[in-house]
Design goal:
Layout: E1 4-7, E2 10-13, H1 24-28, E3 31-39, E4 42-43, H2 46-60, H3 69-79, E5 85-92, E6 109-116, H4 122-127, E7 129-135, H5 150-161, E8 166-171, E9 174-178, E10 182-187, E11 190-193, H6 204-215, E12 219-222, H7 227-231, E13 235-240, E14 244-251, E15 254-255, H8 263-280
Parallel strand pairs: 7-8, 7-14, 11-12
Antiparallel strand pairs: 1-2, 1-6, 3-4, 3-5, 5-6, 8-9, 10-11, 10-13, 13-14, 14-15
Bound molecules: N-(5'-phosphopyridoxyl)-D-alanine.
N-(5'-phosphopyridoxyl)-D-alanine binds next to helix 6 and strand 13.
Length: 285
């Protein structure tokens, strides 16, 4: 891919952008990131993504104010003439001789770039997808969107090898979230999703979907549910920036209900589509 990226205050050609080998993101995974979807060149909920990033930076004590990034994002979109793509934003603690504890007087490494949005066919959305369940082997602070993604990478690879769209994690008997998505179930017209706690990422799409559900007057509960409750659900769906709203029809080879996407998932996906179109027209949500 050609085009310009933003790195530490400068807009540079992608192949000229250099990061020191001692960057703590590269060496230690010491940083956070965001993926923001663009629809016709308009970012979806950039404000919510930047707010989450600021929270992560503050928790990790990486001194950086994301405020300046809003303008940077719009500039990257403009100079690269981006339409359907993902913005990728990453802030690491910066570069310093390798040591575990925080170095003094270090400047964060700040990167904004884009990458292609992997298309998901209409057919896939209409038929729904298969997921596999895997033990959640991640740490206990999954609410931070850290660049340390090895467990997620391994889980997604395992899903791919099983011919599944996503790997969904469980801790003990409790379903938490997907390797790059959040998960909801519907039972008797009530909707359930894991509460906003340290074991999941508070997804931006999750929050938009919660708004949709409430606006529709549907009943939603942020409460834990078990593997068995997932298998017994009437409907299951995933949410995420790259996933949007995706019906799940098969869990570990077992059909969910009739094996077809459910009605409530359909209503939520349709409303989400409307919000996307609104964003694509340059309107704020
Ligand atoms: N991942 N949970 C995890 C572990 C995630 O990595 C993601 C997103 C989500 C959904 O969050 P959101 O709705 O804000 O995208 C939930 C991004 C897309 C990624 O790593 O590519």
């Amino acid at each position: 891919m050609s085009g310009k990226v933003y790195l530490n205050g400068k807009f540079v050609d992608r192949d000229k952008a250099m990061i020191p080998v001692e960057d703590r993101g590269f060496m230690l995974g010491d940083g956070v990131y965001e993926v923001v979807r663009l629809y016709k060149g308009n970012p979806f909920c950039l404000d919510r993504h930047l707010e989450r990033m600021q929270n992560g930076l503050d928790v990790l004590k990486i001194k950086f104010n994301v405020k300046e990034l809003e303008e940077v994002c719009y500039k990257i979109i403009k100079i690269n003439d981006l339409e359907e793509a993902n913005l990728y934003i990453q802030v690491t603690r910066g570069a310093a001789p390798r040591q575990h504890h925080f170095p003094e007087d270090i400047r964060p490494t700040v990167l904004v770039m884009s990458y292609p949005a992997a298309p998901i066919s209409q057919e896939t959305r209409q038929h729904g997808v298969k997921i596999v369940l895997l033990p959640d082997e991640r740490w206990n602070r999954c609410c931070i969107k850290t660049i340390q993604l090895l467990p997620n990478v391994l889980a997604k690879q395992q899903a791919k090898e099983a011919g599944a769209f996503e790997a969904v994690f469980y801790r003990g008997d409790i379903i938490t979230e997907g390797s790059s998505s959040n998960i909801f179930i519907v039972k008797d017209e009530k909707i359930f999703t894991y509460p906003l706690k340290e074991n999941i990422l508070g997804g931006v799409t999750r929050s938009v979907v919660m708004d949709i559900i409430e606006a529709e007057g549907l009943e939603v509960y942020e409460r834990e549910f078990t593997r068995q409750e997932l298998l017994d659900a009437d409907e299951v769906f995933l949410t995420g920036t790259t996933t949007e709203v995706m019906p799940v029809v098969d869990v570990d080879g077992k059909k969910i209900s009739t094996g077809k996407p459910g009605k409530i998932t359909g209503i939520i996906a349709e409303k989400f589509e409307k919000l996307k179109n609104k964003v694509a027209e340059g309107k704020q949500l």
